[in-house]
Amino acid sequence: MQNCETCIIRSKAVNTLNPKELRFLMESCAETTYNPRESIIKEGMLSSHIAYLKSGLAMVSKKGVKGVDQILKIVQPGNYLGLQTILFEKVNQFSVTALDKCVVCFIDNLSFKELISRNNQFANELLLFLCREELTYFERFVNIHQKQIAGRIADIILFFSEKIYANALTFEMPLSRGDIAALVCTTRESVTRAIKDLSEIKTIRVTGRKFEILDLARLKKINQSG
Amino acid sequence: MQNCETCIIRSKAVNTLNPKELRFLMESCAETTYNPRESIIKEGMLSSHIAYLKSGLAMVSKKGVKGVDQILKIVQPGNYLGLQTILFEKVNQFSVTALDKCVVCFIDNLSFKELISRNNQFANELLLFLCREELTYFERFVNIHQKQIAGRIADIILFFSEKIYANALTFEMPLSRGDIAALVCTTRESVTRAIKDLSEIKTIRVTGRKFEILDLARLKKINQSG
DNA sequence: TTAATTATTTGATTTATATCACATTTAATA
DNA sequence: TATTAAATGTGATATAAATCAAATAATTAA
């Protein structure tokens, strides 16, 4: 059993719970640690719990018609993972894989639903969470097709720099070239070439998985212009 | 003021309201009728209401980096339109346009939020609605890149036949060739060509906007195989 | 350390689709 | 009904990116 009362990365939703509800949550909560590349949620498997990422970095992916996995998003600590599956209790509609060492809290579906119907502030926060997520997908959907590969690569480099590594200009990319391809809807080879192109015009410097942004303004421009 | 009490296309969420709450909803509700191609919600404009599609067909679209509008989805009666904007009260993140003659109910944001916090069954139904929507987007996102144009066109023909026109094999397409392009992420010309290709192998017959499915099995196969 | 995988890079080639330019049909308006 | 405008179709061409194939580089296992 976890101590949700002292958890420092509690979700906004959990923050709305009263002491009694929080104890109820604690009693139906279990914490697990994952190594990099370990599967946290497996698409097609029976789902019984909602996952909450306490620490580490994870990715959400889903199989398409060709059987190839596409990465839907990178998840940071403080986010729910299987929220959308509350509906389809039966099977997971996507996979979640650890990129770092990850600490994940699991809450069983039933208890989670119980909290939703008990506390409407809790439900409200979840609503906001889902709305925000959906708008992010809209953005992503609309842009991924209107940009060519260099633009999309610029986009994810900026994403990691800004969103994941707090505006660091140098960072270690947790994704392989193949992962990046699955994230921006292209092939491994095209990712390599796009990175090479961006390097040749001195916008970035890349050695293996170490990424360094040399010309932030230009990178942003490439991201915008596609 | 509308009569929500007798509305036959009430959302599952609204069905959870008690008589008092329903009256509250009615008092903050206004109904408007739109002609085909009329704008119901305009991206970038200040948003103050949540829209609910009572009848007709509408499309949700959003501008990408290139300034080109992409169609995110086709909305059928019984669905909320601006739900995701509850968060960003300021501006609409997408546009909604009528395809048919549409009847739309508007509820002001504040009253809607009030209902969420008053009735947790209401909030719960909205949660389920958003979850279902998100899973649909996942599906769409993952597949649109793994299929080539013929497969995507097959997909939307099947979508209209099955989902919009109750499995009718003959139907009037409410979208122009350009709209279809915006929906499946391609160009007007490529849509024309794909339709021509499908027609030549006698899978469909198309005259103007009249679509007829001749070989359903084959169309489904093309949809699956990409 | 060496061998054996696995990941990445690079070049050559192919292909699906975008783009351009123009013809034709259909719908809207005077 | 004639005139204009908008939507659609069609061919030629260009191009971004996929695919194929093979060489390096980097990990992992023995």
Characteristic key phrases:
homodimer; 226 residues; alpha+beta; Jelly Rolls; Arc Repressor Mutant, subunit A; 2 domains; 4-stranded antiparallel β-sheet; 8 helices; 11 strands; DNA-binding
In short:
Two copies of one chain form a homodimer. Chain A is α+β, with helices and mostly antiparallel strands. The first copy, chain A, folds into two domains: 12-143, Jelly Rolls, CATH 2.60.120.10; 147-225, Arc Repressor Mutant, subunit A, CATH 1.10.10.10.
Verbal overview:
The structure is a homodimer of 226-residue chains. With 226 residues, the first copy, chain A, is α+β, with helices and mostly antiparallel strands. Chain A folds into two domains: 12-143, Jelly Rolls (Sandwich), CATH 2.60.120; 147-225, Arc Repressor Mutant, subunit A, CATH 1.10.10.10. Helices cover 42% and strands 23% of the residues of chain A. In chain A, the strands form three sheets. In chain A, strands 1-8-3-6 form a four-stranded antiparallel β-sheet. In chain A, β4 (58-63) and β5 (69-75) form a beta hairpin. In chain A, α5 (149-164) crosses α7 (188-200). The longest helix of chain A is centred in the middle third of the chain and has 25 residues, at 120-144. Chain A is elongated and about 60 Å long. In chain A, 40% of the residues are buried. The model of chain A has no long low-confidence stretch (mean pLDDT 93). The first copy, chain A, binds a DNA duplex (30 and 30 nucleotides) through α7.
